[in-house]
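**User:**
My hope is that you can spare some time for a protein that puzzles me. This is the protein in question:
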Amino acid sequence: MLECFVVRGGENIYAVVEIAGKQYKVAAKQTIEVERLGVPEGDAVEFDRVLFIGGDGDTVVGDPTIKGARVKATSLGEAKGDKIIVFKYKPKRRYRNKRGHRQIHTKIQINEIVKG
């Protein structure tokens, strides 16, 4: 006998949203790091450039964005990323230049995805 189980643990909706010129796939209750937004810790943030909403057998594709759709999030503060070493070198010319860089990121918690 073949049994079929359907697991219902809330909504499995995800969205592709453009934040600071980059695209991120996000879901509710997810924490992600994005480019620095300059938003204080604990403030609410809303992103309206939603490109795609999918999950639960229901998909909506924007052209280029979905009208009325938005992603609500909360800022968890800023943090520095990993150090990147930039080393420039020219052989036979005694030219060596070593510099480091640490990008500042904003951590955000995705609260809700609102369909348009």
